[in-house]
Design goal:
- This protein is about 25% helix and about 25% strand.
- The protein has helices at about 20-35, 60-65, 80-90, 145-150, 180-185, 210-225, 280-285, 290, 300-305, 320-325; strands spanning about 5-10, 40-45, 90-100, 105-115, 120-125, 160, 165-170, 190-195, 230-235, 240, 245, 250, 260, 270-275.
- It has ten helices and 14 strands.
- Strand 3 and strand 4 (about 105-115) form a beta hairpin.
- Helix 5 (about 180-185) runs parallel beside helix 6.
- By secondary structure, the protein is of the alpha/beta class.
- It has a single domain, classed as Carbon-nitrogen hydrolase (Nitrilase/N-carbamoyl-D-aminoacid amidohydrolase, 4-Layer Sandwich).
- The strands form three sheets. A six-stranded mixed β-sheet has the order 5-4-3-2-1-14. Strands 6-7-8-9-12-13 form a six-stranded mixed β-sheet, covered by helices on one side. A two-stranded antiparallel ribbon has the order 10-11.
- It binds 4-methylsulfanyl-2-ureido-butyric acid.
């Protein structure tokens, strides 16, 4: 049986602050129609794909913040996306800001869902690695307040049996952390779907700015190879409300090779036929985890949050806070 999934990675150009949900949904639907014409099974949209990337602004009034969040999925505004995808027989992955009522309180997550070809939500992931800061830092050219507006995801890194394969999700900053992919790799993941909003400029470390594109590909290509999985990385790109964001939407094979790459910073669909069995030879050889991993020697990874210098080591600048890290 063929295990080829045809994937559409649906890059978005900027979303303006005053763009309505319905206007954005129209753009997403245009992507769906192109994807159908190009034979896709699954369309992957970026992180927070329904609004502008609002963590760039400091807001204090919770009502101002909450207007960027979805209280239900689908809602009146997002239902047309679900309806059109089902009509076309397309699955999709969508990132959005989720306002949930759980454990007797209101909670805010940076979320992605996987919707099957029948329009059912078959997978949900809530972003775990939240970058940025939680207090207003006026010295920055723009804010990155994900730590203020979201709490870390509480669903782990699940892998879903869907579309004939094993599919996982992560979101933006998660892609930089090897643990993200390895936890899914240990569940036999075959395809990781991820959307991102990555400003070109990182105010605390401007020396990284020239490397944004390189780091984007570096982390996704190495993770694909090391976990023998497809990785589909999808940008919201271009100059959004005065903040340039990287593009570089790409589909990466389990070989680590990019098989499709966006060439614009606008709405652009890239497509690849992805054989879910392509990772098999890696899973059976160099990355046969059961045969070659030595988890006893990896204890430090789960026993400490920050670095723990060797006992008796001469202090180094990178050891800052390391005492508190020791459990
Ligand atoms: N959205 C998101 O996670 N963006 C981050 C920016 C890092 S700089 C604070 C990223 O890792 O791309």
């Amino acid at each position: 049986m063929s295990r080829i999934l045809t994937i559409g990675a649906a890059q978005l150009g900027p979303i303006a602050l005053d763009e309505t949900r319905s206007q954005v949904v129209e753009r997403l639907i245009a992507h769906l129609r192109t994807a159908k014409d190009r034979g896709c099974d699954l369309v992957v949209f970026p992180e927070l794909a329904l609004t502008t990337f609002f963590p760039r602004w400091f807001m204090q009034d919770q009502a101002d913040i909450d207007r960027f969040f979805e209280t239900e999925m689908p809602s009146a505004q997002t239902r047309p996306l679900f309806d059109e995808a089902r009509r076309l027989g397309l699955a999709f992955c969508l990132g959005y800001a989720e306002l949930a009522h759980e454990d007797g309180r209101t909670r805010h997550f940076n979320t992605a869902i996987l919707v099957d070809k029948q329009g059912a939500i078959v997978g949900k992931y809530r972003k775990i690695h939240l970058p940025g800061h939680d207090a207003h830092e006026p010295w920055r050219a723009f804010q990155h307040l994900e730590k203020r507006y979201f709490e870390p995801g509480n669903l782990g890194f699940p892998v879903f049996e869907a579309l004939g394969g094993r599919i996982g999700m992560c979101i933006c900053n998660d892609r930089r952390w090897p643990e993200t992919y390895r936890v899914m790799g240990l569940q036999g993941v075959e395809m990781v779907l991820l959307g991102y909003n990555t400003p070109v400029h990182n105010p605390p470390a401007p020396e990284h700015d020239r490397l944004g594109w390189f780091h984007n590909s570096l982390v996704m290509q190495s993770a694909a190879y090391q976990n023998a999985t497809w990785v589909v990385g999808v940008a919201k790109a271009g100059n959004e409300e005065g903040v340039p964001m990287i593009a570089g939407t790409q589909i990466v094979a389990p070989t680590g090779e990019q098989v499709a790459l966006a060439v614009t910073e606008e709405d652009e669909l890239i497509v690849a036929d992805c054989d879910l069995d392509l990772g098999l030879s890696y899973k059976r050889s160099v990355f046969d985890f059961a045969r070659h991993r030595e988890p006893e020697t990896y204890r430090l990874i789960v026993e400490t949050k920050g670095p723990v210098p060797p006992r008796g080591a001469i202090p180094m600048p990178s050891d800052k806070n390391s005492k508190e890290n020791r459990r």
